[in-house]
Write a structure and sequence with these properties.
Elements lengths: L1 H12 L5 H17 L4 E6 L2 E9 L4 E7 L13 E3 L2 E3 L3 H18 L7 E7 L10 H6 L6 E4 L7 E5 L1 E10 L14 H12 L16 E9 L9 E10 L5 H11 L3 E8 L9 H13 L7 E4 L5 H5 L5 E3 L4 E2 L7 E3 H17 L2
GO molecular function: hydrolase activity; metal ion binding
Pfam families: M20_dimer, Peptidase_M20
InterPro entries: Bact_exopeptidase_dim_dom, Peptidase_M20, Peptidase_M20_dimer, Peptidase_M20A
């Protein structure tokens, strides 16, 4: 386990919150894998480096996908330290521990007789959307039959994930002198009334097995020019995380049914929809039980989204599964070291049985 901890620490010390830093982390991973006799293929897209490493053979492919980029942090967060079985540092949980475990798993699997191909994908832009790396990979044919993304899940399985729909909604009013607001129609007030009505739309009240409801965040209100004028236009920006069975056109149509506003889609991300009955998910559940003291493996839905969505778009089962940790993107981010070792062993045994 000591070498695994050392690898995680080395990765944390690389400030990979920028493109340059993330590419530096990829170079480190490349040298580490090469030193252990593994073959690697480095790709580049729009300046972002991607690393592909593959072992085994067969008709089917298991993909292990991890990102080495992190959100920005304080300088001290790139100086890892251990305390009470936890390793602290930026990216420790999200997701350099998971990446390190995947790298060790590939090294251990190199000389095994495997039933399938195991492909490690290390990417550098997940935290800013994944458009240049995992999206590029899936559209270039780097796909398989099942995908594990090493997001921190406390050794549970993130089976589904909400989609994301970010909208700018232009609401128009009528200008008037600020001293006589009754002669105009305040676009800001109309926007806020629209927002309250959106919360009562049918899509906003739907639920599913893993989600109580979609989330609707009023992120920005932009309107008005001067104090003494009733604003005649307002842009309301919404961040909507919708349920896997919902779709963007239905949501937009329901919003437009309230008010003949102008709706612009700023960002759209596909949801992730998997079934717990999937044969590979059932096999993974068995491996988690065999390597932990969990009587019941937690299977849940994610409110945010990860690179799993790019595989899901092609109908490929892709889950979030990683070690235990907490406070990722926060000041006290840490990963539980025992869970990282367990995670590595689960990956190895799952890969051996994958077919």
């Amino acid at each position: 386990m000591g070498n695994l901890i050392s690898l995680i620490k080395d990765l944390i010390r690389i400030d990979s919150s920028t493109k340059q830093g993330a590419n530096e982390a990829i170079a480190y991973c490349e040298n580490w894998l090469l030193a252990r006799g593994l073959t690697v293929n480095k790709l580049k897209n729009n300046g972002f480096d991607i690393l592909i490493c593959e072992v085994g053979s067969g008709e089917k492919t298991l993909i292990l996908n991890g990102h080495v980029d992190v959100v920005s942090g304080k300088e001290i967060q790139f100086q890892p330290y251990e305390a009470e079985g936890k390793l602290y540092g930026r990216g420790s949980a999200d997701m350099k521990a998971g990446v390190a475990a995947m790298m060790f798993a590939m090294a251990d699997l190199k000389d095994e007789e495997l039933n399938s191909k195991i492909q490690l994908q290390l990417v550098t832009d997940e935290e800013i959307g994944g458009y240049n790396c995992t999206k590029y990979l899936t559209e270039s044919g780097y796909v398989g039959e099942f995908v594990i993304c090493a997001e921190p899940t406390n050794l549970g399985i993130g089976l589904q994930a909400k989609g994301v729909l970010q909208l700018d909604i232009l609401v128009r009013g009528k200008s008037a002198h600020g001293s006589r607001p009754w002669e105009g129609e305040n676009a800001i007030l109309r926007s806020y009334e629209l927002y309250k009505n959106i919360l009562s739309l049918p899509f906003a009240k739907e639920s599913s097995e893993f989600f109580r409801y979609p989330s609707i965040n009023l992120a920005k209100i932009t309107g008005g020019e001067v104090y003494n004028k009733v604003p005649d236009a307002c842009v309301m920006s919404l961040d909507i995380r919708f349920l896997p069975f919902q779709n963007r056109q239905m949501i937009i149509d329901q919003i437009r049914s309230i008010d003949k506003c102008e709706v612009e889609v700023v960002l759209y991300g596909d949801p992730v929809m998997n079934s717990a009955d999937n044969i590979h998910i059932q096999s993974l559940v068995s491996q988690i039980r065999a390597n932990t003291d969990k009587d019941k493996v937690e299977i849940f839905g994610q409110h945010g989204f990860a690179d799993t969505r790019y595989f899901s778009k092609f109908g490929i089962p892709a889950i979030e599964f990683g070690p235990a940790g907490n406070f990722w993107h926060g000041d006290n981010e840490y990963v539980d070291l025992k869970s990282v070792e367990t995670y590595k062993e689960i990956l190895i045994e799952f890969a051996k049985s994958f077919k």
